[in-house]
Amino acid sequence: MSNIRHFIFDFLVEKGLSEDTASYINMLILLCAVVFFAFIIDYVTKRLLWRFSAGVAKRTKTNFDNILLDNKLPRNIAHIIPLIILIEFVPQVFSDFSYAETIIQKTLMVIGIILTLSIIRSILKSIKDYLKTKSQYRDKPIDSYIQVFMIFAWLIGAFSAIAIITGISFVKFATTLGAASAIIILIFKDTILGFVASIQVSINDMVRIGDWITFEKYGADGDVIEINLATVKVQNWDMTITTIPTYALISDSFKNWRGMKDSGGRRIKRSVIIKVSTIKFLDAEDIEKLKKIQLVSDYIESKSKEVIDYNIAHGADKSVLINGINLTNFGVFRKYLQTYIEKHSAINENMTLMVRQLEPTSQGIPMEIYCFSKDQRWENYEFIIGDIFDHVLAAVKYFELEIYELSLGK
């Protein structure tokens, strides 16, 4: 390179050009030649490396190498050789211009740092895309870890670039920077909090991608579609997107419905309020009438015999109905609902199932149905509830009971 540089310079001087002019023209000719040569090497290297990588990808069973191609790793690696050529020869081109030589040399070294970071980014992005194709990693916050690693990589790259430009050693620069750590912590507070939160969320398995969560503070109620370093994105049921700070998952309270999904049932917990004034003891005529209801006919038959035997054994005076023990329309209705729910095809019989009487209120006595539907899908779940309580509301009158309704005066 040195011989060529002097040859061109001497040739130009011989042609009558001044030494200053010859130096500038010599520098431009050599610069164009080196850049052109580097461009050709870059093109050839890129084509060869791409073809080689594509051939290897076709022959292998794994799709990881295909992902590396999609993330342009071969192209980024191909730039290494041309950059080495430029670093080696371009400073020599500017050897007669010492002020420019230093600037060019530092610029190329900074470009080398950027190229290294690009290669690292391509590899990390490929790892992320590959892991997301594996079912066991789809619900893990891979994005958070990649982002944290890249933040540290970019910080180291930025510090290295500044150290090169200023001429200060990296160690000395990093030591000096330690004095400003308080300011850095303040600037990257959310990033640090998000990083810590991401680790805790992952370790404790608090949230996965695809989980249904309810976070009232942020108005979120839907499926988690993304977990990254700073935010968690939730697609609500109305198709809007709510963004929640990642650290809020460990600092605030939210509800994760994953347990419900994993259980095989979705809870139904709803009640109707019965008027107290319509609750009564059943006499013989009432009992005979209710025996016609098939779901409770066997229960009434056995229970009536039990009541009669008890009252006879204890000498109860049944001329007054309250004496002894008696069946009530409210109790029979509760048994009817219990049997109805047990036989309902949409209810999970392997989970808690009961009809219970709650504490009386000023409106009446709530009769609550507590069970779990087999189908967890929202629209089907609501249909099941509607189907059950349509029947409950229509069945009340057969037991001579009434549902409480608030009547407003005119």
Describe the structure.
Its main location: membrane. It is found in: Membrane. It is a single chain. This protein is of the alpha+beta class and 410 residues long. The protein folds into 3 domains: 1-133, no CATH class; 135-263, Roll (SH3 type barrels), CATH 2.30.30.60; 266-399, no CATH class. Helix content is 59%, strand content 11%. The chain has helices at 2-14, 19-59, 64-70, 73-78, 80-93, 98-132, 142-166, 170-178, 181-187, 189-203, 248-251, 258-263, 284-290, 294-313, 329-342, 378-395, and strands at residues 212-215, 220-227, 231-236, 241-245, 255-256, 266-274, 354-357, 365-373. The strands form 2 sheets. The chain has a 5-stranded antiparallel β-sheet with strand order 4-3-2-1-5. Strands 6-8-7 form a 3-stranded antiparallel β-sheet. Strand 2 and strand 3 form a beta hairpin. The longest helix has 41 residues, at 19-59. The N and C termini lie far apart (105 Å). The relative contact order is 0.06. The mean pLDDT is 82.
Mean pLDDT: 82
Q: SSE string, helix = H, strand = E?
A: HHHHHHHHHHEEEEHEHEHHHEEH
Structural class: alpha+beta
The description of the largest β-sheet is: 5 strands, antiparallel
Q: How many separate structural domains?
A: 3
Helical segment tally? 16
Proportion in β-strands: 5-15%
Report the uncertain regions: none
Side-by-side strand order of the widest sheet: 4-3-2-1-5
Query: Total number of β-strand segments?
Result: 8
**Mind telling me the C-alpha Rg?**
40 Å
Q: How far apart, in Å, are the first and last alpha carbons?
A: 105 Å
Coarse morphology: rod-shaped
Q: What helical percentage do the residues reach?
A: 55-70%
Keywords: Membrane, Transmembrane, Transmembrane helix
Protein name: Mechanosensitive ion channel
Transmembrane segments: 24-44, 107-124, 145-171, 177-199
Domain Mechanosensitive ion channel MscS: 190-258
